[in-house]
């Protein structure tokens, strides 16, 4: 049985003390850190780049995955690799062939992921399903934390899961946007095994319980489907 992994998005953390925030989620047993990088073009918001990542890299040994919400991520892949991330998501909507981006990320020794906006169809996914280590199904419109979970992308998760099961591809399905203990069961039921959560974790009074509850809510679905 898969173990549900939790990746908190530091977008919802207190940026005046990122190290403390990262250590708090580490203590709560998360599996890695999700870094939301926004370029003010692909999305209207602007966040941080490799310089900040290089500094927070010193705070933990947890894996870092950068979610590049950028029109033109190509020139930034190497700076992010140098900043110490383990994996990079680029978006399917940008003007680049997914497999070419994937090769570039792999050539830097990193794991590669493909992020897909809620309204974007899967398209010719059988062509790339075998290349990437992860797919990031967006369940909000990217750009801001704290938005309401959208149910429409659940169908894409189901299709991806069924393709993964049939082809034996090693692709892990991750979901990003509006995830909390109430929405986690539906995405796990659809086939996700890695959950990103920002406000539900950093906005919680009891961060430790928030992490446990999201993981438990997802894991219970897998336990029930086994039994
Ligand atoms: C949205 C980001 C998400 C977001 C998740 O653009 O990609 O990672 O921060 O935050 P919540 O969990 O608050 O929706
Ligand atoms: Zn994200």
Properties at a glance:
single chain; alpha/beta; TIM Barrel; globular; binds D-xylitol-5-phosphate; binds zinc ion
Description:
By secondary structure, the chain is of the alpha/beta class. It has one domain (5-226): Aldolase class I (TIM Barrel, Alpha-Beta Barrel). The protein contains 9 helices and 8 strands. The protein has helices at 18-27, 50-56, 77-83, 98-107, 125-128, 154-167, 184-190, 199-202, 207-226, and strands at 5-8, 33-38, 64-69, 87-91, 111-116, 134-138, 172-176, 194-197. It has an 8-stranded parallel sheet. Strand 3 (64-69), helix 3 and strand 4 (87-91) form a beta-alpha-beta unit. Helix 2 (50-56) packs parallel to helix 3 (77-83) and helix 7 (184-190) packs parallel to helix 9. The model has no long low-confidence stretch (mean pLDDT 97). It binds D-xylitol-5-phosphate and zinc ion (ZN).
CATH class call: Alpha Beta
Could you tell me the CATH topology label. Answer: TIM Barrel
**Count of alpha and pi helical runs:** 9
Count of DSSP strands: 8
Main sheet strand line-up: 1-8-7-6-5-4-3-2
SS-derived structural category: alpha/beta
Low-confidence stretches: none
Summarize model confidence as the mean pLDDT: 97
- What's the CATH superfamily, by name? Aldolase class I
The appropriate CATH architecture is Alpha-Beta Barrel
Topology:
Layout: E1 5-8, H1 18-27, E2 33-38, H2 50-56, E3 64-69, H3 77-83, E4 87-91, H4 98-107, E5 111-116, H5 125-128, E6 134-138, H6 154-167, E7 172-176, H7 184-190, E8 194-197, H8 199-202, H9 207-226
Parallel strand pairs: 1-8, 2-3, 3-4, 4-5, 5-6, 6-7, 7-8
Helix pairs in contact: 2-3, 7-9
The protein binds D-xylitol-5-phosphate and zinc ion.
């Amino acid at each position: 049985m898969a173990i549900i992994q939790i990746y908190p998005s530091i977008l919802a953390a207190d940026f005046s003390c990122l190290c403390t925030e990262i250590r708090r989620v580490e203590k709560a047993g998360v599996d890695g850190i999700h870094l939301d990088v926004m370029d003010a073009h692909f999305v209207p918001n602007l966040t941080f780049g490799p310089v900040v990542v290089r500094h927070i890299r010193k705070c933990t040994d947890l894996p870092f995955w950068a979610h590049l919400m950028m029109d033109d991520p190509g020139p930034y892949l190497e700076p992010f690799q140098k900043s110490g991330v383990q994996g990079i998501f680029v978006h399917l909507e940008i003007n680049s062939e997914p497999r070419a981006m994937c090769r570039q990320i792999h050539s830097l020794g990193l794991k590669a992921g493909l992020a897909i906006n809620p309204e974007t169809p899967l398209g010719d996914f059988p062509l790339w399903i075998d290349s990437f280590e992860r797919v990031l199904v967006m369940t909000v419109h990217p750009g801001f934390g704290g938005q309401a979970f959208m149910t429409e992308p659940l169908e894409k998760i189901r299709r991806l899961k069924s393709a993964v099961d049939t082809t034996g591809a090693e692709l892990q399905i991750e979901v990003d946007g509006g995830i909390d203990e109430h929405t986690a069961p539906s995405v796990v039921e659809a086939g996700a095994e890695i959950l990103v959560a920002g406000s539900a974790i950093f906005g919680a009074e009891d961060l430790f319980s928030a992490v446990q509850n999201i993981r438990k809510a997802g894991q219970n679905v897998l336990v029930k489907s086994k039994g």
